Amino acid sequence: QVQLVESGGGLVQAGGSLRLSCAASGRPFSSYAMGWFRQAPGKEREFVAAINWSGGITFYGDSVKGRFTISRDNAKNTVYLQMNSLKPEDTAVYYCASRTNVGGSYAENDYDYWGQGTQVTVSS
Known about the structure:
By secondary structure, the chain is an all-beta fold. It has no helices and eleven strands. The mean pLDDT is 96.
C-alpha cells in the first residue's frame, strides 16, 4: 500500500520561506512522478508543481513560478517543495501526490495516491 506523509508546514511571515517534505513508501519511489497541489479554504485544489521520475523535468503552476522549487531524492524516497518569497495568498493545505507514470502532470486526476496534507499559513 502506497503511503505519502507530508511534513514541514507551519506559520511564516510574508516574504519568508518554508520547505515541505513528502516521504513515500509502499512501491519503488524512483519509478514514478510526483506532484504538489494545494487547496485554500473555499477554493478548488490547485496544481503547484510536478517532477518526473528522475528529477530531470519539472514544471510549475503560474502562481508559484520563480518562487517555488520541486526536487526529489530517490535514495531517501522523498520529494521536496522549497517555497520562497511566500505571500498570504499561498496559504493553503499542501498535498503531495504520486502518479503511476514516469512523467508528471498538471491534472490531479492523473495522480493515484495522495498524502493527508500539511497546512501552510502565511501572515501579512
